[in-house]
Amino acid sequence: MENLIANFNYVIVVILMMIGLWSMLAQKNLIKKCIGMAIFQTGIILFFISIGAKDNALIPILTEAANHTYPDPDIAKIANPLTQILMLTAIVVGVATLGVGLALAQKIYQQHSSFDEDEILENQRK
Amino acid sequence: MTEHLPIIIILGPLLGAVLAAFTAWFRPKLSHPLVFVGLAISFAAALKLVFIVADAGAQKYWLGGWGTKQGHGVVGIQITVDHLNTLLLAAVSGIALLTTLYTKRLVDAELARRQRYFYALFSLLVTGLLGITITGDIFNLYVFMEIAALSSYALIAYGRGRAYMAAFNYLIMGTMGACLYLLGVGFVFAKTGTLNIDDVSAIIPELGQSQALFVGFVLILLGAWAKMAFFPFHGWLPNSYAYAPTASTALLAPLATKVSVYAMLRIMVTVYSIDYIIHSPATQSLVLYLSSIAIVAASFFSLTQTNLKKLAAYFVLSEIGYMVGGAWLANKPGLTGAMVHVVADAAMTSALFMAIGCIVYRLGQAQLDDLKGVFFKMPVTMAAFVVTMAALIGVPPTCGFFSKWYLIQGAAQAGVWHFVAALLLSSLVKAIILFRIIEIGYNRVPHPAIEGNPAIPRNEAPLSMLIPTVAMALGLIALGLVTSTLVNTIISKALPAALTP
Amino acid sequence: MEPIQSIMPVWIILTSSVAAVLIALLGRWPNLRESCIFVAAVIKLGLLLSLAPAVLDGKLYEFEVMELLPNVGLAFKVDALGLLFALVSVSLWIPTTIFSMGFLRPLKRHAQTRFFFFFAIAISSAVGVAFSANLLTLFIFYEVLSLSTYPLVTHHQDDDAIKGGRKYLTYLLGTSIALALPAMIIVYQQTGNLDFTNGGVFASGTSTMLLVVLLVMFLFGFAKAGLMPFHAWLPGAMVAPAPVSALLHAVAVVKVGVFSIIRVLTGIFGVDLLANTPSLSTIVCVLAAVTLIVASLIALTQDNIKSRLAYSTIGQLSYIILGVGLATKIGIAGAALHIPMHAFGKITLFLCAGAIYQACGAKCISEIHGLGHKFPLTMTAFFIGSLCVIGLPPTGGFVSKWYLLNGSLDSDQQWAFAVFLTSSLLNAAYFLPIVYKAFFATPTDPARLDKAKEPPLLTIVPLFITSAGCVLLFFFSDKLFQFANRFAEMYTAQ
């Protein structure tokens, strides 16, 4: 239990991802599926940022103004910059995916006047 | 110059895509030749690298020179061409090049005035696939995976109508796969502190048995399986391939899933070591059962299909089972079989969809019942089709026979008889389907050479489609004949040294 | 003895493939097309004969084209049995082509070019099987043969043909993929070797259970040999035109099946292993003996001439398998000898069946009662062919059955003697009445009597050639016996 509280950010990550995964797979509404996708991705972003974070760490910019240990930085006192950069990329990918997903959902809506998966499938069978 | 060949492989189609998207604004006609040139450059580089790798071993390339100096290691991005991926690189760029040539008339016919951005997306997809194959960095692999995936959603959605829903389902499943993969990468990064494949594989053995690493392994594999439509994540594939424009399917079907299989092999063989599989027999036997189920179920579903494109999509599913199963046999012939089959199946599926594309181009659709007399209408196409099906069945001396040989040998060595049975069953089902098509296409019409019967005018697909189709079909036989050479000079060196012979 | 490295086997195989290409190109000029076949057949026969002296001396011709799998290549080897089989197939190609011209042209059959094209491919692959140096090469040509004969079986393209063709492929492809291929892979996995070697490839101490399973898989996997219960494709394939049934389903295709089994028994398992492991030998003999008797009994009940012949073929093929299963030198020689003897006899019968159809339109035995005197030449040829298959002098069939009987007495399986004799009696019982009734029974259908007449010369000549062959083989059987004996010696001499 103590472990859970100490790592509460990971607990939130898991909760976010479960919500996301559930609405991607179980929801019938296409927009809700897209929302689930976004939540899932947010969970992963939080996960990466969490593993790069350190207690009382400084931003990873190695100039005198930002970091008093320059030019000989104490690595234990600097947050890992790599995870943040990775997540910048992941956010871009996530936005692009969400955009394509919503565009497809819109096209489907134009055809079937519905976002409901069952209704759409029934329409297609006709 | 030769040291820059690895990056040229990706830059060719990437620049092609950018330029094609740009020229699409004012001169749409330019995009096809631009993409073609980009892919041709890429293919030439990939081909050259095959020989370099066979002679001199793996080629590593650090982007922008980062990582070559002391202390750069963590930051630089590496791309690698080694024995495991060099053949696939050549296959992907080569097949993409032929498909570019092949799809021109098909795109004109199917998409007409909507084709403006088609080739830009086409080239971007190839960039993503080549990137997945060539990268030496597990996060980079995710980025390329999504580049490929995003362009393929769009390429499928070009089919309109039911294709939108198919593309949407693919998007959901694909994104889920990519997210699981990324999550797994997070676990690996947390434990090893690096993303470079060489470094990760050097660090993992030092860490010993680690649960976090195992969870990462499973997540990455789940991600790859969702991307490659391995049972039970296969639901999105048949509809996507069937309702996409034939031109899109001709590129997607042979390459997209195969490259995901490669990603799985890369993770299994070089990032993690093969011991991971050997030391968890329960997981191993579960995956092998899943593969057998994938093969058997896909074979049965293919028997019930009435549409040629959908039928072929089920073939793709069963072939995925071959490769996953082969890799998870985790012995020498099994892994060899999986590696040979990745290349062989890319070629076979490409030839299959090219032949189907020719039929669709002339007949307008691909219902089995519409095929009556097609052997008389399009004899050359159908000859290529029969050769391709023979390769899929595994008739020697086509390439399909040899990969299947290794797979069965591996399964026999491991004593996994249900996998042997599944492989043989799938061959038989394909044989049944081939001869059903021959019956419909050849025997079900009054023979036109008999006096009094109506003549069937010959109506071949245009040469720009026919030549790539025939070339691909002949390539299947050529590939079969050089299998032994390829295995000896390249693939056998990609196998982990620890394997029992 | 040092084998001779020579590319000759490849040229011999390719001769008829080149002919096939020419046939396809010359399709518009039938005379040119068919003369092309004769030229190819004569060249091929000449090349084969040129290899004969060295092979009879006990030398081997070898050639490896390329490596396909580690230690297994696309490789050819000519030994006495392979050469004998190739000689039989190619020499019978000539009369069959003459017959085809006489049979197809007057009836204005469609797609004759396609017919001759696939025929030539089939001959190529039969010779390829004969010359294969290892199981993989053999399997490749075996499959090519299955696929290239499919268009011939479905030549008529009506419902019956489609049904027959479907059965044909289901049995042949199905068994080869589901049984022979995995068996081959297991052998490769166990031994790393697929070459046909004297004494077999298995290391001593291989478990008998595994050997038994592999043996059964091979016996049924090469379903072209028609072992029951995988025999039904052969009667089904009788929908093919008469020349196809004659050359392919009496000689090339079925003998390829038997030949493959002989190769597996002698070259993969080894005669010693068979002789020393009673269970293996017994399995082969029992399966063959059951097929032998049951097929003969079924043949008695068939009214359709071609299906009676088909069941007779199934029975005669088992003679050969039984002969090898005895695992004695004389039995193997007899089995090898039975390949040409039965080939000549059965092709005569099939050609006669075609000729009878052409003479009076009859497909069934009951339809030709009393018509024999209208086409005496055809029926005489039929009589000689029957004698050869039954095994009565003065025809070649007598010689091979003589050796087979001797072989059964030499072996541990002496009950086989009784099986051979019983079956020969049954052979007589289902062939001789046909001839008798054709000449002496009262005609059942007077309308047919008026129409019946001797078929054209192009049809009759091949009948003479092959039935003369049946008789000549009796008088020159020592020549063929040299081949058979050379082969038997090579694989049994220790």
Helix-strand sequence of chain B:
HHEEHHHHHHHHHHHHHHHHH
Could you state the order of secondary-structure elements of chain A as H and E? Answer: HHHHH
Distance between the termini of chain A: 55 Å
- Topology, number of strands of chain B: 2
Q: Tell me what portion of residues of chain B adopts beta-strand conformation.
A: under 5%
Task: Please count the beta strands of chain A (DSSP E, at least 2 residues each).
Answer: 0
In short:
The complex is a heterotrimer of chains A (126), B (501) and C (494). Chain A has 126 residues and is mainly α.
What is the topological layout?
The complex is a heterotrimer of chains A (126), B (501) and C (494).
Chain A: H1 2-6, H2 8-26, H3 30-52, H4 81-112, H5 117-125
Helix pairs in contact in A: 2-3, 3-4
Chain B: H1 5-23, H2 31-56, E1 59-62, E2 78-81, H3 86-110, H4 118-134, H5 138-157, H6 162-192, H7 197-207, H8 211-228, H9 237-243, H10 246-271, H11 275-278, H12 281-304, H13 308-328, H14 332-363, H15 374-377, H16 379-393, H17 399-414, H18 417-443, H19 463-494
Antiparallel strand pairs in B: 1-2
Chain C: E1 4-5, H1 8-25, H2 30-56, E2 61-69, E3 72-78, H3 80-104, H4 112-131, H5 135-153, H6 159-191, H7 208-221, H8 233-236, H9 242-269, H10 271-276, H11 278-301, H12 305-325, H13 329-360, H14 376-390, H15 396-410, H16 415-440, H17 446-451, H18 457-475, H19 477-492
Parallel strand pairs in C: 1-2
Antiparallel strand pairs in C: 2-3
Helix pairs in contact in C: 1-2, 1-4, 2-3, 3-4, 3-9, 3-13, 3-18, 3-19, 4-5, 4-9, 5-6, 5-9, 6-7, 7-9, 7-11, 9-12, 9-13, 11-12, 11-16, 12-13, 12-16, 13-14, 13-15, 13-18, 13-19, 14-16, 14-18, 15-16, 15-18
Describe the structure.
The complex is a heterotrimer of chains A (126), B (501) and C (494). Chain A has a single domain, classed as Helix Hairpins (Orthogonal Bundle). Chain A is an all-alpha fold. The radius of gyration of chain A is 21 Å and the shape is elongated. Chain A has five helices and no strands. The longest helix of chain A is centred in the last third of the chain and has 32 residues. In chain A, helix 2 runs antiparallel to helix 3 and helix 3 runs antiparallel to helix 4. The mean pLDDT of chain A is 85. The relative contact order of chain A is 0.12. Chain B has a domain of 217 residues. Chain B is built from 19 helices and two strands. The model of chain B has no long low-confidence stretch (mean pLDDT 88). Chain C has 494 residues and is mainly alpha-helical. Chain C has one domain. Chain C is built from 19 helices and three strands. In chain C, strands 1-2-3 form a three-stranded mixed β-sheet. Chains B and C meet through helix 17, helix 18 and helix 19 of B and strand 2, helix 5 and helix 6 of C.
